[in-house]
């Protein structure tokens, strides 16, 4: 033991030369490797790490994390915000790979002239919604709502019961206020009438905004006008659907959709593309041609535009006929889930229990989807989470529940291997 613990910390070149670090560093930028080694050395200097563990800790620093590592979602939460919302379909993943090179993003290959960015997605969206008009894809749902209201300058008339906090402390009405819009609140928390909106309208009105309460439900003495009633007020109506159903769904009959809202007279609808639509992160402003054109040409639009990888993934998602992973998870039949859970049980033991899945942050609050899960002792959840591949299960009533609803059938073998490793560990 040395008197000065700093002296005992291995030197950078020694750590770099160790087998574990050389293996972990393969293909990485030298500055990234050196920074990882420095972090491990610093921890050892602070006494937070034994000096003999510096090479292993440095190698762990270099391991891919967070946004690079694919995780198996065994929570039964379909649109899981903390796990990146929707899993992309195979077609969408392949299109992202292809779009990683140069693509004719704003270039017409037939004429050699400049072309509009996102034109293919625009047409696909209009086809799928069955709408005339125009569509614009931006960075996310919040950006879509922001642009829709910027295209309609003036007061935004919004019901108090629809002043939604979407997550991580962000609130839609504060987003609009932050962008310079004046939000005119109408109604009470639980009830709002057409007359409340009508009496708030005036020369300063920019639009009426109807927001889908996508992450909570109101029960009891409640009420709000329909899209059709609000459209009858004679001012532009923006409907923020949030969840991104393009057309009515038989699985989620109460969830609002773009097609119905436009038919009922909405001027513009806005929604996210990574919730029930099952695509990459993105947001859509769709509806009246002149209004979408204003949104497209608004100076702020440039700060919100979608990138080529998202546009490629979204185009592939909209074009494909097969169910997206999100739609497949929604439509999964309890019998099939039971068979999958029984197969897991046959491989690793545990108990078959019923499991209630939910749509998640993406919409359909309060909707419960019946299914099945494998129940294991609670400590298994942590071992699964730190395993390879990481599996995120649900801890409920002191047990670890592994719900296969959101695990692709292709990934069953990897799930079994991860369960075996976690139970052996
Ligand atoms: C999710 C949601 C948003 C925000 O969409 P992001 O894609 O997260 O930016 C806005 N409005 C509603 C109603 C939502 O559900």
Brief overview:
With 425 residues, this protein is of the alpha/beta class. It contains 18 helices and 15 strands.
Key terms:
425 residues, alpha/beta, Aspartate Aminotransferase, domain 1, Aspartate Aminotransferase, domain 2, 15 strands
Structural write-up:
This protein is of the alpha/beta class and 425 residues long. It folds into three domains: 10-61, no CATH class; 67-84 and 327-423, Alpha-Beta Complex (Aspartate Aminotransferase, domain 1), CATH 3.90.1150; 90-319, Type I PLP-dependent aspartate aminotransferase-like (Major domain) (Aspartate Aminotransferase, domain 2), CATH 3.40.640. 38% of the residues lie in helices and 19% in strands. The chain has 18 helices and 15 strands. The protein has a seven-stranded mixed beta sheet with strand order 3-11-10-9-8-4-7, with helices on both faces. Strands 1-14-15-13-12-2 form a six-stranded mixed beta sheet. A two-stranded antiparallel ribbon has the order 5-6. Strand 5 and strand 6 (170-171) form a beta hairpin. Helix 3 packs parallel to helix 5, helix 6 packs antiparallel against helix 14 (308-319) and helix 17 packs across helix 18 (412-424). It is globular. It binds pyridoxal-5'-phosphate. Residues 140-142, 145, 164, 166, 172, 211-212, 214, 240, 242-243, 272, 283 line the site of pyridoxal-5'-phosphate.
